[in-house]
Write a structure and sequence with these properties.
Structural class: alpha+beta
Number of strands: 27
CATH topology of the largest domain: Palm domain of DNA polymerase
Strand content: 15-25%
Distance between the termini: 93 Å
Radius of gyration: 31 Å
Largest sheet: 7 strands, antiparallel
Shape: globular
CATH superfamily of the largest domain: B family DNA polymerase, palm domain
DNA sequence: GCGGACTGCTTACCT
DNA sequence: ACAGGTAAGCAGTCCGCG
């Protein structure tokens, strides 16, 4: 069959949803006139929808969201999101592309390997020329073509990559290989004409093109070419994606245990959908232990906008759930990989469903949909880079409750009873609320997350499913692998890279680390007025760009390049070729710094466009921030410690030289960390001079990041407070701000900050001093009189592993966790333990089990002192001295 | 047997 | 599984003390 477009359709669902809802259904259905030709006539309620055949359809504009492998047809296929009807279409490869790996042996030599020749998956040879960047030479390689991906690798034994002596590019997943080779632009629009997949060319508006051309006019052709390709991917608009969030509830017999999805022993009692088209649905199962009558489809008083469907049989409810899942192109969950979809899948099997009736495909670490896309937001929010750089650590625990509360201001509903004892109405409300929150996480800020995912998928050539589940190192791997394939470069084998460049030459300050990192300048203690902070924008990416750093250019094979030494290291860098990662990362850096960052802030831009540029700027930030670190990470496919080491070393050189220069022209440097220097009352002309010097001597742009009315330093590094002109305050590293600090102390600390933010001159510190002293006294009194609640007194510390994992020492929060476990309260890795300090043998108790009477007041007083002292040290205030006498009298009995 | 000096572990932060 | 550098508090150990 040569025409290979196949539409996935259902008949009954469409009719039913239209009948049951008075609301207009958002999507036009004109496509269905063609599609109905292939529609099954069977009973849909019994027979789950399945491919009805291949249709010769035309799609005007559809976006590639994913690429996968069809084991039955032995070929790759695309999941396309059709803009006209907001549905997913599958397009199957029509080129006969096959899996392969590369060998340095000739076909003749390979023919001598009988295990290869007799391998059932072996198809044939193809001789290809590849450029070996490590050796800087052309190589003739043999492509060993196989019938299916598992023949190359993936099985424990007998794979082709294990049979031949040395295999290149054998670790690449087949669907990735297909994306690279066929240049499938993930997240970009295509059209389909008579079954042929055709990319829709996108050209940015001429004025954008012009601005960018002029920004890069002094760069090399290859740099410009790279930038142009990025711009095409980034400027192309994204469609609004139709989606539904899913959440299920299971009646567990043991309320404190999360039901095991693989066993799926207990019934699913509720399923909620909350969708971008405005529909909110709740499916409920009748339970014998609930006396109240089952609410009928008319709905519930407390959920007026929700459509309620009640079921006598779990099988029917699950079947209905599958219908709704199939109706949406994208299903959102929060932990659906490990729970909701997995439970649905296994429960359905337990209840006698046939695999073909289940729209879910279980992978080893994920649950995907046969036709649609499953986005597990838990995995995405868990990603450290997303957490830190895209959301500035606004949420701390990766739970629906914490993420929802932090980003949306809406947390989970509190339950007073276990799920199995809830009445229908509470259960429905609870379940639907979770689905609502999950959906809202993707609709907030004008669909920020959906856009973020699309932008990241485009630049990294990674499917939506992989992108949302994997870390930055995978994104960068795909980005750089793609560039290798595009150029006909051989992707190096990790072993080969390790053998020549697997060592470092500097000594880390922290024991156990591989190489020396950033420079931190000793702060000048005290309060300094008019402090300007200068920093190198995207310092490490700038270094990688400017100094041509890449795995093949650092310690390149050319003797004449050895004179291009890297300061602080025995390494050198190539002067003959442009490094591939220098180009890829460097061009992204320039686009962010010179174009997107400023465009996002530009006034007068249409709101939607400004928002889009903001998303791009943020996406690039996430990728750029990791671009240096990956070269020092053993798990990275281009792990190359000399590259990471060289980057850090040039960074130290840059900041140290910049400080030297600042001092030479008469400026006072009061602090600096990695890429920033803090200047005390600098003259504008001198700053200008320093910035010019930096461009000329270091080839890197220095910027004014912020200006403080005054900044306060103690003698501690990475600890300071800066008050801006408008009275807002930057607090860095101080205990009072840390999230594990008890609430009462955080509050008192911020009261002090408020006092300090009002200080305008050195003279005003005296008054502030007095007010702060009063503040601390009040704090002492309240502690002594036990006027704080246990919650306010609690320390909140994350348990990074299970209790059994603490073998070397037993920290306080683990002691508290043990007490909880004894009471039968489940605690797991990732939980935050709230405990208070008490007098008595244990020293600590979890909040739930403590009483205010046993609080160890002395311990808390010590905490108050040290927290305040961090700031007051710098202001020459000694709390002990001022409060010494007071403190004693507070604690005299009576 | 006990307290201070010390080291190592753990967490949370900064860039 | 992106990196290294810093602070703080506590757990555990060693050593001296007649």
């Amino acid at each position: 069959m040569s025409t290979s477009l196949y539409a996935f359709l259902k008949g009954k669902e469409d009719r039913e949803t239209q009948d049951s809802s008075p609301k207009p259904y958002a999507e036009p259905r004109e496509f269905s006139s063609q599609a109905k030709e292939g529609e099954g006539k069977g009973d849909e309620a019994k027979e789950s929808p399945k491919p009805e055949g291949y249709l010769s359809l035309n799609l005007a504009r559809a976006y590639v969201l994913s690429v996968a492998y069809d084991g039955e047809g032995k070929r790759a296929f695309l999941k396309l999101y059709n803009e006209a009807d907001h549905r997913i279409y599958l397009w199957f490869d029509d080129s006969g592309h096959k899996p392969y790996c590369l060998s340095d042996l000739t076909p003749k030599e390979l023919e001598g390997i009988s295990a290869l020749m007799n391998h059932p998956g072996f198809v044939g040879f193809d001789v290809v020329k590849k450029y070996d960047a490590l050796a800087d030479q052309e190589r003739t390689m043999t492509k060993i073509v196989a019938s299916d991906p598992l023949a190359i690798g993936g099985r424990p034994t007998g794979c082709i990559r294990d049979i031949i002596p040395k295999a290149w590019e054998a670790e690449i997943k087949y669907h990735e290989c297909y994306i690279f080779d066929r240049d499938i632009a993930v997240g970009m629009p295509y059209k389909i004409e008579d079954g042929k997949l055709i990319k829709i060319d996108f050209k940015p508006p001429p004025e954008v093109e012009k601005s960018i051309e002029s920004l890069f006019k002094d760069e090399s052709e290859e740099f410009k070419d790279m930038a142009r390709r990025w711009v095409e991917l980034l400027e192309c608009p994204v469609p609004s994606l139709r989606r539904a969030a899913l959440d299920i509830e299971v009646a567990s017999t043991v309320p404190t245990r999360v039901p095991n999805p693989r066993e799926a022993k207990e019934p699913i009692v509720a399923v909620a959908f909350s969708a971008s088209d405005g529909r909110r649905r709740i499916l409920l199962l009748r339970r014998s232990n609930v006396k109240a009558p089952l609410p009928m489809s008319i709905g519930m008083p407390s959920l007026p906008e929700a459509e309620v469907e009640a079921f006598e049989s779990e099988v029917d409810m699950i079947r209905r759930t599958f219908q709704i899942i199939e109706d949406y192109p994208i299903i959102l969950t929060f932990n659906g990989d490990d729970f909701d979809l997995s439970y649905l899948y296994h429960r359905a099997l337990n209840l006698g469903f046939d695999r073909k009736e289940i729209p879910i495909v279980m992978g080893r670490e994920s649950a995907s949909l046969r036709h649609g896309i499953h986005l597990d937001l838990y995995k995405f929010f868990f990603n450290r880079s997303i957490q830190v750089y895209a959301f500035s650590q606004k949420y701390r625990e990766v739970t629906l409750d914490d993420v929802g509360a932090s980003l949306l201001g809406v947390g989970k509903m509190e339950l007073e009873k276990p799920i199995s004892e809830l009445d229908y109405e509470s259960l429905a409300t609870y379940c639907l609320q979770d689905a609502d929150i999950t959906l809202s996480l993707t609709t907030m800020d004008e669909d920020l997350i959906m856009k973020l995912i699309i932008v990241l998928a485009r630049i990294s050539h990674t499917t939506i499913e992989d992108l949302s589940r994997q870390g930055v190192s995978t994104w960068l791997r795909n980005m750089i692998s793609y560039e290798h394939r595009r150029r006909g470069w051989l992707i190096p084998r990790s072993e080969d890279l390790l053998e020549v460049k697997g060592f470092t030459a500097t000594k880390a300050i922290i024991e156990g680390k591989k190489y020396r990192g950033a420079e931190v300048i000793e702060p000048e203690p005290g309060a300094h007025f008019n402090v300007s902070v200068l920093d190198f924008q995207s310092m490490y990416p700038s270094i990688i760009r400017r100094y041509n750093l890449s795995y093949e250019t650092v310690r390149c094979p050319h003797p004449e390049c050895q004179k291009n030494t890297i300061p602080g290291t025995p390494h050198w860098v190539c002067g003959r070729r442009r490094g591939i990662s220098s180009l890829v990362i460097g061009s992204l850096r320039d686009l962010r710094v010179r174009w997107y960052k400023s465009r996002a802030k530009e006034k007068g831009l249409p709101k939607a466009l400004a928002n889009w540029y903001g998303v791009i700027s943020n996406s690039l930030k996430v990728v750029l921030n990791a671009a240096y670190g990956v070269f020092g990470a053993e798990s990275f496919f281009l792990y190359c410690p000399p590259v990471a080491e060289a980057t850090a070393s040039i960074g130290r050189y840059a900041i140290i030289e910049t400080i030297r220069q600042a001092q030479a022209i008469g400026m006072k440097v009061v602090y600096g960390d990695t890429d920033s220097i803090f200047l005390k009352a600098p003259e504008a002309s001198k700053i200008e001079k320093l910035m010019d010097w930096s461009v000329e001597r270091l080839g890197m742009e220095l910027d004014i990041d912020k200006v403080y009315r005054y900044a306060v330093f103690s003698s501690r590094k990475k600890n300071y407070l800066g008050v801006f002109q408008d009275g807002s305050v930057d607090i860095k590293g101080l205990t009072g701000k840390k999230r594990n600090t008890p609430l009462f102390l955080q509050k008192a600390f911020f009261d002090m900050i408020r006092i300090l933010s009002e200080v305008k001159s050195a003279e005003e510190f005296d008054e502030a001093k007095e007010r702060i002293t009063e503040l601390v006294k009040t704090c002492y009194t309240k502690l002594k009189n036990r006027q704080y609640s246990l919650e306010e007194l609690a320390f909140n510390i994350m348990m990074s592993r299970a209790i059994e994992g603490y073998v070397k020492t037993k920290p306080q929060h683990i002691k508290a966790a043990e007490l909880l476990a004894q009471k039968g309260i489940e605690v797991t890795a990732g939980d935050i333990i709230s405990f208070v300090k008490v007098v008595g043998p244990t020293g600590v108790k979890p909040v739930q089990l403590a009483s205010i009477k046993e609080i160890d007041v002395e311990k808390y007083v010590g905490y108050v002192e040290s927290t305040f002292q961090q700031v007051l040290d710098a202001l020459d205030i000694d709390l002990k001295e001022i409060l010494g006498a007071t403190r004693l009298e507070f604690f005299m009995p009576g």
